[in-house]
Each structure stands twice: as C-alpha cells, then as structure tokens.
Amino acid sequence: xxPEDLLNDDFLKQFSNGSELTSFLEELHKRGxxxxxxxxxxxxxxxxxxxxxxxxxxxxxxSKKKLKTSLxxxxxxxPRDREGSFNPMLVKKRESTSDGVExxxxxxxxxxxxxxxxxxxxxxxxGFNISSSxxxxxxxxxxNDIIAWxxxxxxxxxxxxxxxxxxxxxxxNSKVINKTIYMAVGLRTDGKKEVLGLWLGKNESxxxxxxxxxxxxxxxxxxxxxTATDNLNGFTDTIKTVFxxxxxxxxxxxxxxxSCRYVVWRDKKAFTxxxxxxxxxPTKEAAKAALEDFKIxxxxxxxxxxxxxxxxxxxxxxxxxxxxxxRTIIYTTNLIENLNGKIRKYTKNKLSYPTDEAVIKSVFLxxxxxxxxWTMPVRNWGIILNQFLAIFEDxxxx
Length: 398
What we know:
Elements: H1 3-6, H2 9-12, H3 18-45, E1 59-69, E2 72-81, H4 99-110, H5 115-126, H6 132-140, H7 142-150, E3 157-172, E4 175-187, E5 193-201, H8 206-218, E6 223-229, H9 235-242, E7 247-250, H10 252-260, H11 265-279, H12 284-298, H13 303-311, H14 313-316, H15 324-330, H16 334-347, H17 356-370, H18 381-391
Parallel strand pairs: 3-6, 6-7
Antiparallel strand pairs: 1-2, 3-4, 4-5
Helix pairs in contact: 4-17, 8-9, 10-13, 11-12, 16-17
C-alpha cells in the first residue's frame, strides 16, 4: 500500500491545526524508530519476540533514551539483551542525535557557520540544546571520509587538469600564518569534472606542486594531456618532471592581471584594449604580430609587462594549437578559480582556523556542497571528445 493511500484526505482532515499534525508526526517517528530497533534486536538474537532463542542470549527489557531528531527531542525505549552485546545501528550507544540532525549540523558547518552559531540555529529550529563538543564530534566524523577520498584511486588519463591554490589563515605555534590549499580539478574521458584532491602547504611554490603531482601519479594517473596553471615560477618544469608528455598552458587571465598591475589609471583602458588583440587573435602568428605592435607602443613605459609576455610566450600561446572548443576551456584557470570563489563563500565567516585539520575539513565540506551539480559532461562534450581523439588518438582509451 502506498503512503498516500494511508494518509488520505479523510485521515488528514481530523487534524484541526498544525500543532496536532506535528504531534502526530513526532509520535509516528518515535514509534517507527522503536519498531526498527525491535527488528534490529530480532536479527541480533536470531529469533523473534515471544519465541525461543537459538543462541542462549535473550531480551532484557528496555532502557529509556532521549533522542534529538529533526522533529525535536523525544524519549524512546531501546530494547536490551541480557549479555549487553546489542549495539543498534539506527541509534548507537552513547549517541543522542539522529542521522537527520547530524546531516543538518554537517551541512550548516559546510556553509561556514561557527559552532556557536550552529548551537543557536538548532535551538531555534528544533527546541533542544546541543553542546559544542557534540557538534565537534559530529563534524569530526567527516575525517574518515576525507582520508578515504584523498587516497582513492584516480583515472589513468585526464584530458585536462586545472591547478591553483587558495590561501587561508591557520594557527601554528601560537601564531596565525598563511597556508595554501593546493587544488587540482581534472576533466575525465567521460567529460565530467572531478576534484582530484586537497593538499595543505605553506605559500604556493613549484616545489610543493611536485608533491601534489607525485601523489596524483601514485594514485593511478599515468597521463595528463593538458595542464592549465598560473605563471608560478618553475611550475612548467615541475609538471614535466612528473608528467613529461603533458602540455602546459599558462592562464592568460593571470597574465593580463599581472601585466596591468602597475599600469597607471589613465593608460589602463588603452593598454588592456591593445593587449586584448594578442590573446583574441585567430592564430599564433597573428598573436605574435599583435605582441610586436603592443611592444612598439608600450615598451618605453611598461617594459616589464612586455618582457613577461615574451618570457612566457610558448606556454601562454599553447591554446592556439587547438580548436576553438578546446581553447575556451584551457586558456584560463577560471574554472578552478570559480570553484575557489564558492569555497570562499562557504568559509568567509572563518577568519582563521585553529589547526590544519580544521581548514581541510572545512574546505572539504565546502567542496562537497560546491560540486553537487557536477553530474553532467562539459558543454559541447561530443565535439570536444572527438577533437581530443583526433589530436591525442594514441594516448586516450575510452
């Protein structure tokens, strides 16, 4: 029988107000939990109530327990066995919160709420108190999930891997210092994006990226076709050390920002318009010609910007070697920067973190929220896949 057959219109009309309906649902929830616990004890003892035990262990009455659920606080009867070996899965020993409440607490924590804010929110929504230590215990459960996630096997081949760092303030030895969460997002051969991992280190450096890339390789990745990175000194050489066949594209948007950093306000509009002719050119040759024009006009005032373009030219212009559909997703690290922005939105209330574990836990939960919609392939996936197959046919296995 379907739930709508049991809770039909005639049945629901007996409730004269919302309070009566809520009381009914609370009682229904309470009785449901108790019946499930009875069933768990049946399975544990290997015999049903009022029948003989095949193990010698028998029922031994009930104990009362206050349980905090998403419907409020309720008192339930938990069945016991004589040997005391029964440990129910639904309502575990020494725990007073249901999975529903725990999921709500983890969700609030992921959205950047502090422990005290979560306490207030639970009190306001459900009418019961929950201690800071209980909230910490619940959010600490996520640690095992993080360990499993960080050590899971990866795909053998990623078409593109975007890499970037995001800085947080963390307390260390009684001081608050800057630490970097290193993050890599891969495009799989099914067209879906995947966060490959989180790594915590000091200020961003190519030396630490070596650790990140080595870990990615150790977890099963044999080849990365294209990497998209910022123009961190030595980054390209680091990538080549671990994935020698990978093609590295330096983020053009980072280059634009760096080039404009010291341009005076009155020159900025004309400067950026002239620079745009470089990266929007139809071919690499046209881009080189645009760079020469740019140099003639601006070299006397902003030679450092011209030199930066020239020094990074090979890695800045890799995207010209690919069709337009691939160009649009590799010429910038905007994809991972947008993800960083969402993480910042969830963590903005945390001015600093007490430990390394706390910042990793917070970012992991924010990531889980931010990537929930990563269920579909990237736009124009059919076209992009065929282009990759044509260009890298000997390196891709579908």
